[in-house]
Amino acid sequence: MSDRPQLIGIVLCELVLQDVLRRDAISCVNIHSGVVAPAFPTQLPLIYAFAQLTGGKVGFQYQFKVMDPDGNLLGASPMAQVDPLPNENITHKIINAFTGLTFDREGVYSFALDVDGQIVGTLPFQVVLAAQQPQQA
């Protein structure tokens, strides 16, 4: 078994709440799997990427990356260092905020999680153009 933590899941949401007394208690509010754009380009003012990973005996570095439908890098969080947890059975919970992500066309974008230089998981993010309402005469 690898010492590298294994991905449990990735969630995208508008707000992440962390309990003051129980730091491991996280709530994600208004979970997203995509956006309906009124026109292109369209911009998301703020979106959070939250991931949960298994515990391990060693620390690691991680970074979230946002890719366009062609696989080109659209944005990335800063590289962050995570220390090992005191107990392997506790999970790592990592959070990053993206502000001002701009999508220039329809398609399936992706949010990827890079751990120690390897992509450990991706989450598709569908961007579609809103249907135009026919004008009434």
List segments where confidence is low: pLDDT < 50 over at least 5 consecutive residues: none
Strand content: over 45%
Specify the CATH architecture: Sandwich
Radius of gyration, in angstroms, nearest whole number: 17 Å
Tertiary shape: elongated
Would you tell me the overall average pLDDT?
93
- Tally of separate helices: 0
CATH topology annotation: Immunoglobulin-like
H and E order: EEEEEEEEEE
Count of discrete domains: 1
Helical content class:
under 10%
- Determine and state the CATH class: Mainly Beta
Total strands: 10
Structural class estimated from helices and strands: mainly beta
How far is it from the N-terminal to the C-terminal residue, by CA? 67 Å
Kindly describe this structure.
With 137 residues, this protein is mostly beta strands. It has a single domain (7-129), classed as Immunoglobulin-like, CATH 2.60.40. The chain contains no helices and ten strands. It has strands spanning 7-18, 26-32, 34-37, 42-53, 60-67, 73-76, 80-82, 92-103, 107-115, 118-129. Strands 3, 5, 6, 7, 9 and 10 form a six-stranded mixed β-sheet that branches. A four-stranded antiparallel β-sheet has the order 2-1-4-8, with no helix packed on it. The mean pLDDT is 93.
